[in-house]
Amino acid sequence: MTDDSLSSHLHEMDLSPDPAFTEQANGTAAMYDEAAADHEGFWARQARERISWATDFDQTLDWSEAPFAKWFVGGTLNVAYNCVDRHVEAGNGDRVAIHFEGEGGDTRTITYADLQREVSKAANALESLGVATGDRVAVYMPMIPETVFTMLACARIGAPHSVIFGGFSAEALHTRIADAEAKVVVTTDGQWRRGKPAPLKAAVDAAIHHGEDESPVEKVLVVKRTDTEVEWDDSRDVWWHDLVDGQPDTHEAVPVDSEHPLFILYTSGTTGKPKGIFHTTGGYLTQAAYTNAVVHDVHPESDVYWCTADVGWVTGHSYIVYGPLANGATQVLYEGTPDTPHQGRWWELVEKYKVSILYTAPTAIRTFMKWGDDIPAKSDLSSVRMLGSVGEPINPEAWLWYRKNIGGGKAPIVDTWWQTETGGIMISPLPGVTTLEPGSAQKPIPGISAEILDDDGNPFTEAEKVGYLVLTKPWPAMLRGIWGDPERYKETYWSRFGPKYYFAGDGAKYDEKGNIWLLGRVDDVMNVSGHRLSTAEIESALVSHPSVAEAAVVGAADETTGQAVCAFVILRGDAVDNGEETVQELRGHVAKEIGPIAKPRQVMIVQELPKTRSGKIMRRLLKDVAENREVGDVTTLADSSVMNLIKEGMTSGSSD
Ligand code: WT7
User: Fold this and answer.
1) pLDDT for 9-32, tens place per residue?
2) Which helix (H) or strand (E) holds 334?
3) Is the CB of 388 under 6 A from ligand 1?
4) In angstroms, what is the span from residue 506 Cα to ligand 1's centroid?
5) Ligand 1 centroid distance, CA of 521 (Å)
6) CB-ligand 1 contact for 415 (6 Å cutoff)
7) pLDDT-derived band at 607, boundaries 50, 70, 90
8) Which has the closest alpha carbon to 82: 309, 305, 262?
9) Of all protein residues, whose CA lies closest to atom 6 belonging to ligand 1?
């Protein structure tokens, strides 16, 4: 479709809410007014209506030590009790919590009563390994039920977990384990990837035996998933089936303070060192449950919900584990890739489990568009009534494809903007309430306030003018800091526009109708397939290679993944440039240092990098090269001939 026919097509569509949907929707137009009239009162109501407290809170928000928030002060609760036990106590023990589907087709149906037993056994097992309230547990696992059991078992004990995505390398795992000082690691022998087992525990072993440093890890608990051969340390390693299976299946959930840390999740920032974003208990759970109810419109007694994210990312935390389970929902958990054993796997799962709500990412939708309409058409998708998108802007063309081919031409699509730091959805339409605008996340949800600021920090509402997105009021699921680094927290989020505004790092604009359009990051952070990667982190991985003198990384536009990693590298004087071979070696080196997701699509070996007189690399110009554009303004370069040198003398290799 051309841009013109796309926009005229959009104009003809009626995207106002369907009255039948509105009638049953959890979200209402009145919520906007209620929240605007009394911000704290609104959130206090969400907290009391959606969450079971062991002790009620006596203050909704303490912002006296801003930007360090305390929500629901004085309250105590247990997250696992809220996500599991209370549903059993309410008589819903037979309701399915998780329909698990392994990549190879093995399945497991887990009811809330089963979940209560499994989580209790895992909690007893962790305690037997010496894990106590406050201890950190690292989780390096694939998408299997034991991962959910482990996270909830940690919450049950009050031991913050740090989940590390299974695609990260031993090196990345090492720094995250060390930073959080994790006492126990839970992992598997291996994970299934496109029909083949890939080792996982081996990376844990390497992360623990790393150089001279003494590892904080005392025990490693290992689930047997793939029968992959593993090295074994008898004094440290324990099989899950030996330890967990024999534990008592009841466990007393310990209520913790509302502000007790629930988890740490590492994300990339503008420097090479990842940030340990940490979230606490009461506020986080309240917002996760509220948003899953009003934005995904989950009705636990009738819906089958499926969020396709990996639990290793915040989306998996908030919208696989905590939000849906707090609400008592039934969901699908799928272990594998979308094209195993064939490209119709997801749609077969939608048909098989009668999925009614699907939450996925634009990069996946664009991949399905490429694979062809005939693939989803083979399955019966009539159960789908609600669709969601997260991770990056969804382009209108992908929006329309999603609506037509997956949503039967009528399911509302919610484009949800949020971040690891925000903990839960912040800007999104409310299905059944909002008239949709493809490509825009539209409006802060009830209880959330945002503005767009100009360079001088002044808010404006003018249409089509580009500025910076900020959040103007504290919200319950907000990060409480960066683990071990309060200064970096203040500096990164609360200094760009002063202490009144949380600086999100995203560019944004309003349209004529007042909808917010998110325009991507304004810092040196890339978004590849909805995953956040830092240019600095990949640059430091590249310069750790003995042949590399200097490196500059940019995110270049990519049709499928949104952005792709492009690296410009200067080799050391004594290194030999073996062309394609060197390029492949450097790509592999990044995959080894960080993980396959960070592997550059392109590595270009150059003689010079464009720098300003003060020595700052001008990434904007490199981006022009990477995106095959005419190179922009070079007048601030120390040496303006550098760009010609780069374009002429490039050895370029691209991805497999
Ligand atoms: C960054 C946060 C939120 C969970 C997944 C990513 C971008 C996210 C959208 C959206 C436009 C979006 C932003 C944000 N982003 N959702 N709906 N529209 N951009 O979490 O890794 O913390 O990344 O993802 O740039 O700042 P994350």
Assistant:
1) 777 889 999 999 999 999 999 999
2) strand 330-334
3) no
4) 9
5) 9
6) yes
7) confident
8) 262
9) 391
Atom of ligand 1 nearest to the CA of 268: 21
Regarding the beta carbon of 398 and ligand 1, being less than 6 Å apart is answered no
CATH number of the domain that residue 623 is part of: 3.30.300.30
Three-state secondary structure call for residue 297? coil
User: In this predicted structure, what is the pLDDT of residue 46?
Assistant: 98
Q: What is the pLDDT of residues 38-96, one digit of tens each?
A: 999 999 999 999 999 999 999 999 999 999 999 999 999 999 999 999 999 999 999 99
Q: Does 518 sit in the ligand 1 pocket, CB within 6 Å? A: yes
Classify residue 518: in a domain, yes or no.
no
Ligand 1 mean position to 419 CA, how many Å? 5
- Judge whether 617 lies within some domain: yes
Domain interval for residue 636: 529-649
pLDDT-derived band at 656 (thresholds 50, 70, 90) equals: very low
Q: Which two tokens stand for residue 638?
A: 């120390």
DSSP H or E segment with residue 494:
helix 486-494
Cis check: omega of the bond before 160, within 30 degrees of 0 = no
pTM, entire model: 0.91
Query: Tell me, what DSSP letter sits at residue 254?
Result: P
Nearest C-alpha neighbor of 290 from the set 22, 24, 27: 27
Is 596 inside a domain boundary?
yes
Protein residue with its CA nearest to atom 5 in ligand 1:
391
- For the chain, the first-to-last Cα distance in angstroms comes to 29
- Whether residue 419 has its Cβ less than 6 Å from ligand 1: yes
Q: Does the beta carbon of 532 lie inside 6 Å of ligand 1? A: yes
Max intra-chain CA distance, the chain: 74
Q: What domain count does the chain have?
A: 1
Q: Is 397 domain-assigned?
A: no
Can you tell me the distance from the alpha carbon of 6 to that of 500, in angstroms, rounded to the nearest whole number? 40
Q: Answer for the pair 646, 574: CB distance below 8 angstroms, yes or no.
A: no
Q: Is 505 in the pocket of ligand 1 (CB under 6 A)?
A: yes
DSSP string of 511-577, one letter each residue: -TT--EEEEEESSSEEEETTEEEEHHHHHHHHHTSTTEEEEEEEEEEETTTEEEEEEEEEE-TT---
pLDDT in tens, 290-340: 999 999 999 999 999 999 999 999 999 999 999 999 999 999 999 999 999
CA angle 558, 508, 505 (to 5 degrees): 80
Instruction: Using DSSP bridges, classify how beta strands 219-223 and 261-267 pair: parallel, antiparallel or unpaired.
Output: unpaired
Which residue, by CA, sits nearest to atom 20 of ligand 1?
419
Nearest CA to ligand 1 atom 1: 419
> Which uninterrupted H or E stretch holds 375?
helix 374-377
